Inverse folding.
């Protein structure tokens, strides 16, 4: 039988289900290094950029063990369980048998169409057997519960070293609910990271299959690829085949927290019929995913029955998948959202695994015309209320935000969210600042993302060039991640995060000193920087040349600037004169001046007819 997997990965043989992880850094100048903490098993990874002048620049690193030259990756076994002893040493978790895996977890019906079992048996995760953990007697084993009790966990110390801050500060931000550390006790492979407005801005990359395309292998590769370029978390938004197994492969191999929208899998379990959903099916799915190790879950509990009519006159209705599913359920039963009515029980389940809530914006605007409308802000009020209930019960909380919002309406979103949601971390999709550029929505949204992050958004959910058009592939994932790293870092700079500017300064120095190799290596994407440079000046001597093909040797302003400094010191006492330039440069400038005069000395030229 032909499956999509077979079409997508023709080279795969039985028994070789998944083999790929992207290993190694994109340039030999990046080296994995570690900062040692207070105990031998507390080693915080970072990336060291080794420059040609002998200096090194330390950078935050999300790529996991795959980029450590001493590590031998084996995606069939999974990553080492870094946090296992930290979790067990606290003495508050118990191992138990766990929920039995069922065929429907992977979308397999008892009566499979055309008589076949649709499960790709090659794909079952072959790694070590494990029994799930949970808080003993249902106790909250969350970083929030520990923080409130004044405990600095090894995870908090790890984060403090990673961010260059005091561990006590980390604890205090978590205790106040102003930051979250999404780390399920069943996901010991993760290198701890924090999401909060007073920390480095984080970015999330969405991956996952759909009913139309992609294989487990591709999704594992997208995950390692996304984290290699800097994704701080990854959401598996699979809605196609093998949902459970795809997620198992991703979790066991992921060095970053994994988020999901459990409602998608619950809907698969009822054959895609929203009205057949129930709290029981949803609850079962939540437990399945808690036991697997999902670190944070989008829950669309703020889509209340009475808010649904508020979307009736919108240009684009409800664009959130989860939001549209819950709205359909509420209307079909004329009952209140079961996520809202069972919210306390949901909190208690999440608390016993330390799964963080990402309270979903099911009524976010999906077009510029719908931005900041009544439905959107009504839901935000409810998310604020639910956030307080969750934290009260020890569960960590983030709040999801929009969407499609023009630049003049972005700040109001951040201001309202802070006020309504008690400064809980805001996690926004973009926002996209215009609707007119399908194919370039990483840019329309990167603009909004930079703005909202500057004003305090803690994590940015990326948007790829494929948004509104199709499922992103590996290249789209990279483009999305790099775009969002730019937005996040631009915000870190604007917020004055200590240390953020050192990276820019190092790159600017390399640029001004014509250390081309260092300029490439300090880039977010060294491969592209080098390739663009080499497109016009590929020869080795060009790597030390004092110009590039943009201006050429005679018009290189940085070369001219250097010369000024050599001949006139820093120039502060110089009188305006062209004596410091070489004859060629002076001639070049004169030619440009004549060209300008010939055009009538006008800066804006009339349009050609
Ligand atoms: C909420 C956002 O999630 C993204 N999204 C939904 N499903 C997937 C997937 N399988 N892969 C990547 N992104 C996805 C879309 O960009 C949507 O706008
Ligand atoms: C920032 C962010 N990321 C993912 C989702 C889930 O998607 P959906 O609401 O469409 O189900 C969301 N609501 N917000
Ligand atoms: S992205 Fe495609 S599938 Fe998703 S809501 Fe838009 S049109 Fe529908
Ligand atoms: Zn959209």
């Amino acid at each position: 039988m032909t499956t999509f997997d077979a079409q997508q990965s023709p080279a795969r043989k039985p028994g070789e289900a998944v083999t790929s992880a992207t290993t190694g850094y994109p340039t030999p100048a990046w080296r994995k290094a570690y900062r040692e903490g207070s105990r031998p098993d507390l080693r915080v990874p970072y990336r060291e950029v080794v420059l040609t002048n002998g200096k090194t620049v330390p950078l935050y690193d999300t790529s996991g063990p795959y980029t450590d030259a001493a590590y031998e990756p084996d995606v069939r076994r999974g990553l080492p369980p870094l946090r296992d002893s930290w979790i067990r040493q606290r003495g508050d978790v118990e191992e138990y048998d766990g929920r039995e895996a069922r065929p429907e977890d992977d979308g397999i019906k008892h009566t499979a169409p055309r008589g076949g079992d649709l499960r790709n048996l090659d794909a079952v995760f072959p790694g070590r057997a494990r029994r799930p953990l949970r808080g003993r007697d249902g106790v909250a084993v969350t970083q929030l519960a520990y923080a409130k009790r004044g405990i600095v966990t090894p995870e908090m110390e790890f984060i403090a070293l990673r961010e260059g801050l005091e561990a006590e500060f980390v604890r205090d931000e978590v205790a106040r609910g102003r930051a979250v550390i999404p780390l399920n006790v069943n996901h010991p492979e993760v290198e701890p990271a924090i999401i909060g407005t007073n920390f480095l801005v984080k970015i999330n990359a969405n991956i996952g299959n759909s009913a139309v395309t992609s294989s487990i292998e591709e999704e594992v590769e997208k995950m390692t690829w996304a984290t290699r370029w800097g994704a701080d978390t990854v959401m598996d938004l699979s809605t196609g085949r093998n949902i459970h197994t795809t997620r198992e492969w991703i979790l066991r191999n992921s060095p970053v927290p994994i988020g999901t929208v459990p409602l998608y899998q619950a809907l698969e379990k009822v054959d895609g019929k929203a009205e057949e959903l129930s709290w029981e099916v949803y609850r079962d799915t939540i437990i399945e995913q808690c036991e697997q190790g999902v670190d944070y879950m989008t829950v669309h509990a703020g889509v209340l029955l009475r808010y649904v009519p508020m979307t009736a006159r919108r240009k684009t209705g409800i664009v959130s998948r989860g939001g549209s599913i819950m709205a359909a359920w509420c209307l079909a039963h004329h009952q209140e959202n079961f996520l809202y009515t069972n919210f306390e029980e949901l909190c208690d389940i999440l608390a016993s695994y330390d799964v963080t809530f990402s309270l979903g914006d099911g009524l976010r605007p999906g077009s510029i015309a719908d931005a900041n409308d009544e439905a959107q802000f009504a839901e935000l009020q409810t998310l604020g209320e639910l956030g307080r209930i969750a934290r009260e019960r020890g569960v960590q909380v983030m709040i999801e935000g929009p969407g499609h919002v023009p630049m003049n309406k972005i700040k109001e979103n951040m201001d309202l969210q802070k006020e309504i949601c008690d400064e809980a971390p805001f996690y926004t999709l973009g926002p996209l600042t215009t609707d007119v550029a399908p194919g370039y929505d990483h840019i329309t949204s990167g603009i909004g993302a930079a703005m909202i992050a500057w004003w305090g958004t803690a994590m940015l959910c990326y948007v790829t060039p494929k948004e509104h058009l199709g499922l992103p592939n590996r290249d789209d994932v990279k483009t999305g991640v790099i775009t969002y790293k730019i937005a996040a870092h631009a915000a870190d700079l604007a917020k004055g995060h200590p240390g953020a500017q050192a990276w820019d300064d190092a790159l600017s120095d390399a640029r001004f000193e014509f250390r081309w190799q260092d300029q490439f290596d300090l880039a977010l994407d060294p491969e592209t920087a080098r390739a663009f440079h080499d497109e016009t000046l590929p020869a080795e001597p060009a790597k030390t040349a004092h110009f590039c093909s943009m201006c050429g040797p005679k018009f290189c302003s940085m070369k001219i600037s250097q010369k000024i400094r050599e001949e006139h010191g820093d120039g502060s006492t110089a009188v305006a004169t062209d004596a410091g330039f070489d004859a060629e440069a002076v001639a070049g400038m004169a030619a440009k001046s004549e060209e300008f005069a010939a055009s009538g000395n006008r800066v804006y030229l009339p349009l050609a007819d």
In short: Confidence is low (pLDDT under 50) at residues 1-18, 110-119. The pocket of zinc ion (ligand 4) is lined by residues 319, 366, 404, 468 (CB under 6 Å).
